[in-house]
Amino acid sequence: MRIVRLANFVAPRSGGLRTALHELGSGYGAAGHEPVLVIPGPRPGVRETPAGKIITVPGPVVPGTGGYRVITARRSLRRLLDELRPDRLEVSDRTTLRWTGRWARSRGVRSVMVSHESLDGLLRLFVPGRAPARALADRLNRATARDFDVVVCTTAWAAAEFARLGVPNLRRVPLGVDLARFAPERRDPALRATLAGPDEPLLVHCSRLSSEKHPDRPIAALAELRRRGVPARLVVAGDGPRRRALEERAAGLPVRFLGHVSDRDMVARLLATADVAVAPGPVETFGLAALEALAGGTPVVVSRASALPEVIGEAGAAVGDDPRAYADAIQGLLARDERDRRRQARAQAERFGWPASVGGFLGAHGLPGLIGAR
């Protein structure tokens, strides 16, 4: 089966979405299917990858996003889809690409919309008033569910905005984590020595530095810890439109900004080497970076308002949006026996393997899952 996937907001410096697209494409190929991914870029192009063919089509940059692009040319995309003749269509953007569900239905192609974000949550950040934001989200979500055969959400939290509408074609499929790459064995004493002293707790924040991720919270938590006499240090891995403002805010604090880290093995070493990871985004629908930290044996402090408490289980702490609460949670995790907290983190991550995720997505497409998937 040819599974054509469409996605916006994918760039060389993308994080979780890019990882998920790669892993799912690789899994589809391993299951005997032909994955094709269509994404926006500065110029057209085609390349073969281990995750299948990737077709780049021209798309404009969205202002204020730090370089993310979207596909807006419907006519040329419609022609491309007609040329590709997919057996299945998978879409990872509910804004400019929602119309492709109607295209698929007109061609008799089964379609899946993957909800990688909470529209309800995002609108609450930018639309004044909870009631107007929810009303708009409900209207758009009803349209999405109507236009696609299946809507896939990665957590119950993400699915809630569809479930409250009584959407009948809703399916929940968690994402996964590369348990071989992200592992406690990646802990690197030499790396740690360059980042913190032997008695200095090392915190890490791995995320895109944009407003909806609340990247200022780890810095505020560090300031509170230092005020309490805790000699913690913070490493920030990621880039985005908020970086300059964050660097200014961190002035005088022991914070190291690494920028975007393209080397996934380096990310794995960093996450496994830290003592605690901080993932404060209040509208995260899954939080792949947090799961990667757990796989490396590092507990995570997350926003109580997001889906992450569902993902981290007892292998971390979920708190309200307050620097003191984050500082309390970090101190609580550091007070646990190190071997116990790292063992618990790894055990939680092992519940989320990519083979099981690929099997779930194939099931949403009405295709057999992977044999022996876990």
Automatic annotation (TrEMBL):
UniProt KW Glycosyltransferase keyword: yes
InterPro entries named among the record's database cross-references: Glyco_trans_4-like_N, Glycosyltransferase_grp1
One Pfam family named in its UniProt record: Glyco_trans_1_4
Gene Ontology terms for molecular function: glycosyltransferase activity
UniProt keywords, alphabetically: Glycosyltransferase, Transferase
Domain Glycosyltransferase subfamily 4-like N-terminal as annotated: residue spans: 15-175
Gene Ontology biological process terms from the UniProt entry: carbohydrate derivative biosynthetic process
SUPFAM superfamilies: UDP-Glycosyltransferase/glycogen phosphorylase (SSF53756)
Highest taxon, organism lineage: Bacteria
Entry protein name: Glycosyltransferase family 1 protein
Organism: Sphaerisporangium album
